[in-house]
Every structure is written in C-alpha cells, then in structure tokens.
C-alpha cells in the first residue's frame, strides 16, 4: 500500500464523503463514490463533482455509484454515512470487503468501531475524528471552508505501515492528518461538543447564534460539556473539559450563523444521529454511575423530534 495510488471507495458520499473523495481523487488516487442519493449521483456522473473551498472552485471527475453497483475491491473504504446508516451501508458492500480492505470512520459519535466490527476484523478498522467542515450545497456540489484536522488510530491500537500509508495519502491530498494513539480523547471531546451544540440547536431549530443570545441556553451547552467530560473521565478517557468549553464558547461567539449537521438533518426531515451522541453518552453514564440530567433531557427532546419525523407528525 505504501507510496502508490490507492483504490478507495467512499461509502456515504454526502458533504464529508464528497469532500474527502474529491480531494483524494485530485491527489491521484482511484476513488469511487458510493451513495443512495439519486440526484447527487446523477449530477456527479453528468457534470463532475463541484468542490468549493477557500482555495477556489474546481470540478472533479470520478465515478459515483449506488453501493450495490460497485464491483471493485477497495484497499481503503472511507465510511461517511450518518451513524444510523452505518450497518445498512456496510451490508450493501459486504461482498466487496476483502481480507485486506481497511475501513476508516471519521463519523461523529461513539460506537463506530463496534458497528464496523460486525463486518471487518478489528485489525483493519481505523477510527478517528475530524474538524473539517462539509456542506452539501446541492446535488453534485460540496463546499468546505476553514481549516481542519484529522486524528485517527487503528481500532486495535496497533501501528502498521498500512495505517501510516493511509495517513500519508490523506496528508498528500491536503487533509491534515495524524496517527494518534490518544484518539479516543479527541473522539470524546468532539462528542462533548456535538452533544451540547448539535442537540440544543436541533431541539430548538436554531442556528448557533440563537443559543449564544440566551444566557441560560449558553449555560446549558456548557453543562452538557461538563457532563460528557465527566462520563469520559469515569471511563478512563482523559478528556479536557476546559478545552472543550473554550471550543464551545468560541463557536458561540464566532459561528453564529452555523447550522450543525444535526440541525440540517432535522430541517431536511431526516432522522438524526442523537442515539450515537447523547444516547451513547447517557448509556455510558448509566453504566458508570455518572449523573447526566442535561444530556438526558436533550436526548428525550431529540427522541421526540425524531419520532415526529418518523411518524410524519406535524403541527399543521
Ligand atoms: N458535515 C460536517 O461538517 C461534519 C460531519 N461529520 C460526521 O460525518 C458523517 C457524515 O456526515 P455528512 O457528510 O455531513 O452527512 P451527509 O448526510 O451529508 O452524507 C451522508 C450520505 O450518506 C448517504 N447514505 C445514507 N444511507 C446510505 C447507505 N445505506 N449507503 C450509502 N450511502 C448512504 C446519504 O444519502 P441520503 O441523504 O439520501 O440519505 C448522504 O448522501 C456523520 O457522522 C457526521 O456527524 C463529522 C465532521 C463534520
Ligand atoms: C462541523 C461541526 C464541528 C460543527 O458543529 C460538526 O461536527 C457538525 O456540524 O456536526
């Protein structure tokens, strides 16, 4: 795998999958996008994928297929569905996953390695987190603005030439990446951030600025951060509370117009990732005996939102 073009499939080629797929294709890797959004697939196959970043705009030519149409044997499969679709998506490409296929997940939330582990040996799973933002602006059109970073590690904690080669491929594509044995700290810290802002914005259908404008809502966000960090620490993960509080404070000040990905899901009538974020934190808190009343209350509110979306219940 070292020092050559990789055969890569991106499973879930929405905002993040398209961003990563486009960048890796531009760097010379053989990338195939796999998704179920028919309009998005058609636009990519007809016009190429439009990528807009702070560096400018370009069109990337690469194949985009439904998962069941894919007959390749990827060296690397990058999983970027929402977490609630992980299992269905992997099931649809199960026959394409060889013994040498590595699966990388930079999805938000907890439990990603465990879900992927139902399909791939732990020695071939890489998990991590990324701060790159991605927005699907329309079919065949992805935007990403601002800097980002990727922290990742193999799920079994083992270093290997393949892991380093995948990190090198990402860095070579301009996606700043490190192999980080402490990746679970980063994953939990991001869960603390998302557990606070994504859930409050989604429950209130508000951009980040709406939360920033209400002192008791700001305090709620910080209380959720403290709860998630307490659960992480009870689980032996050295999450840094003041660091995540500062990130949330910064987002409240600087990202007022931002719609967290979970809010985008609610507004589009899609089910959310609440179970793998607040839901997974509450489950861990209950196992470990940590009180998380605010995180639990937000989980309850988002379960109502998800339930209404699923049942098609509205107010009018
Ligand atoms: N967007 C962001 O800025 C960031 C997102 N993340 C995380 O990355 C992950 C992906 O997020 P994002 O890119 O925003 O999500 P998107 O919703 O934009 O993309 C997910 C894509 O997966 C598709 N999909 C759904 N089911 C399947 C399936 N069975 N097989 C193949 N594809 C499927 C969706 O199609 P359809 O829409 O038709 O269902 C959609 O096109 C999430 O875990 C998110 O939390 C992490 C960092 C930042
Ligand atoms: C991009 C970021 C960090 C912003 O909230 C995110 O993770 C999300 O929207 O889910």
TrEMBL record:
Its EC number is 1.1.1.169. Pathway: Cofactor biosynthesis; (R)-pantothenate biosynthesis; (R)-pantoate from 3-methyl-2-oxobutanoate: step 2/2. Residues 8-153 form the Ketopantoate reductase N-terminal domain. Keywords: NADP, Oxidoreductase, Pantothenate biosynthesis. Residues 186-304 form the Ketopantoate reductase C-terminal domain. SUPFAM superfamilies: 6-phosphogluconate dehydrogenase C-terminal domain-like, NAD(P)-binding Rossmann-fold domains. One of its GO terms (biological process) is pantothenate biosynthetic process. It holds the Pfam family ApbA. The keyword Amino-acid biosynthesis does not apply. It catalyses: (R)-pantoate + NADP(+) = 2-dehydropantoate + NADPH + H(+). It comes from the Bacteria. GO terms for cellular component: cytoplasm. GO terms for molecular function: 2-dehydropantoate 2-reductase activity; NADP binding. Catalyzes the NADPH-dependent reduction of ketopantoate into pantoic acid. Belongs to the ketopantoate reductase family. This is 2-dehydropantoate 2-reductase. It comes from Azoarcus indigens. The lineage of its organism: Bacteria, Pseudomonadati, Pseudomonadota, Betaproteobacteria, Rhodocyclales.
